[in-house]
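## retry 2 of 3
previous attempt timed out at serialization; input unchanged, resubmitting
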Amino acid sequence: MRKESRLTSQDRDRESGILVLRRRRAKLADRAATTGGAGWTLIELMVVVTIILILLTMAIPNYTMAVRRAREAVLRDDLHTMRHEIDEYTVDKQEPPQALQDLVDGGYMSSVPKDPMTGSSDTWQVDIEEVPVSPDQTQSGIVNVHSGSTATSIEGTHYNTW
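## retry succeeded, writing output
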């Protein structure tokens, strides 16, 4: 018995360390038993991914429609602005512009805007007609501008007829 009572401090530390490890393992085992495991099952992951995909299929069409409406609004505004500037140029210079670049060179616009449907500033379609500049004189030049896109709008009309 004397040998048992003569445990060194190292032996006591070793035994207390083993007890601490046993307690930690028991706590972890209890926690794993109460939470049902440490990870997600394949079924749970599949359900989450399916829900996300369903939400995306509802959101993407709304997003694309919003982008299309925004482009159409920009097109309407650009057409209105360019038509107004063509009229102003014709009244001020007593002659219609021969190209859209004339509006920029004359200071009526800072630059020819990009057609939001084609993404280019070179695709605008212009109507050239004879314009009366005085009671007895007419001159040929730009009187109207349209988009260069042949795509169909939300309303069902072609953009190049706007």
